[in-house]
Design a protein that fits this description.
By secondary structure, this protein is mostly helical. Among the domains are: 101 residues, Cytochrome c-like domain (Cytochrome Bc1 Complex, Chain D, domain 2), CATH 1.10.760; 74 residues, Cytochrome c-like domain (Cytochrome Bc1 Complex, Chain D, domain 2). Strands 1-2 form a two-stranded antiparallel ribbon. Helix 4 packs across helix 11. It comes from Hyphomicrobium sulfonivorans. This is Cbb3-type cytochrome c oxidase subunit. Keywords: Cell inner membrane, Cell membrane, Electron transport, Heme, Hydrogen ion transport, Ion transport, Iron, Membrane, Metal-binding, Oxidoreductase, Repeat, Respiratory chain, Transmembrane, Transmembrane helix, Transport. Belongs to the CcoP / FixP family. Pathway: Energy metabolism; oxidative phosphorylation.
């Protein structure tokens, strides 16, 4: 048996491995704290395998552990407990009129929190997270409403949608004056100038003057003589500075040519009545509810 060789510099036994003639490997043991730590993790792992679900089985199952713990069961129970805790609130919301919900200090915070969550999941992609809207998607923070901003009007719009195909959807359509040849290109340009003049944005007074009669003949029935619109038929106010599709002359001309006709889904078949109530109250609270 070969004698152990001790390194003269460190005083540690060598393994006998030598590189490059004189580079010797020391047989230095791992620190005890490191060894104790790895031993402890091994013991902990074995204990875990015994107590908790751990190993997959050939039949597609897994070892259950002597405690028969299931994280899925825990989460399922937590969800059930949360629903049970909320059930009383949902019942009260179902039985309470929207106007009274806004006055109820107990229900209102719950309704607003739920409405905000529902809005973010379902309405935010079009109207924006804060309801500020974008081109073609109404701003819900102002007081300019195509179909009215009362609680009842908002609830109806959410439930049935706008040109959504639902039997009760709001469905008034603006004529396609250009696409259907109802007005000539020059008449469309003149009418657009007059529409812009209602809010001080016209750039051609002569064209706006010619467009006044065209507006009276074709647009007054819905938008009114003063151009302030009619929520009963979804006709927007043309006399303010709020524009759904843009306030440039080209934008207004395109609206006259195509009639636009935006679509909003019907949420009545997707959201339950209590959820729609919460969403209605939240939208109404954004700042533009009437």
């Amino acid at each position: 048996m070969a004698e152990k060789e001790i390194d003269s510099v460190t005083g540690v036994e060598t393994t006998g491995h030598v590189w490059d003639g004189d580079l010797k490997e020391l047989n230095k043991p791992l620190p005890k704290w490191w060894l104790y730590t790895i031993y402890a993790t091994i013991v902990w792992a074995i204990g875990y395998w015994i107590l908790y679900p751990a190993w997959p089985l050939p039949d597609g199952g897994y070892t259950k552990g002597i405690w028969d713990y299931s994280q899925r069961a825990v989460v399922t129970q937590e969800v059930a407990d949360a629903k049970a805790a909320q059930a009383s609130y949902f019942k009260k919301i179902e039985e309470t009129q929207l106007e009274d919900i806004l006055k109820n200090e107990e229900l209102l915070p719950f309704v607003m929190a739920g409405g905000a969550a529902v809005f973010g999941d379902n309405c935010g992609p079009c109207h924006g997270k804060g309801g500020a809207g974008s081109v073609g998607y109404p701003n819900l923070n102002d007081d300019d409403w195509l179909w009215g901003g009362t609680l009842e009007a908002i609830e109806y719009s959410i439930t049935n949608g706008i040109r959504s195909g639902h039997p009760e959807a709001r469905d008034m359509a603006m004529p396609r004056f250009g696409l259907d040849g109802l007005l000539k290109p020059q008449e469309i340009a003149d009418t657009a100038q007059y529409v812009l003049s209602l809010s001080g944005g016209a750039t051609d007074e002569a064209a706006a003057g010619r467009g006044k009669q065209l507006f009276a003949d074709n647009c007054v029935a819905c938008h009114g003589e003063d151009g302030k619109g009619n929520p009963a038929v979804g006709a927007p106010n043309l006399a303010d500075s709020i524009w759904l599709y843009g306030s440039r002359l080209a934008d207004v001309e395109r609206s006259i040519v195509t009639g636009r006709g935006g679509v909003m889904p019907s949420w009545g078949g997707r959201l339950d009545p209590v959820t729609i109530k919460m969403l209605t109250a939240y939208v109404h609270s954004l700042g533009g509810g009437q």
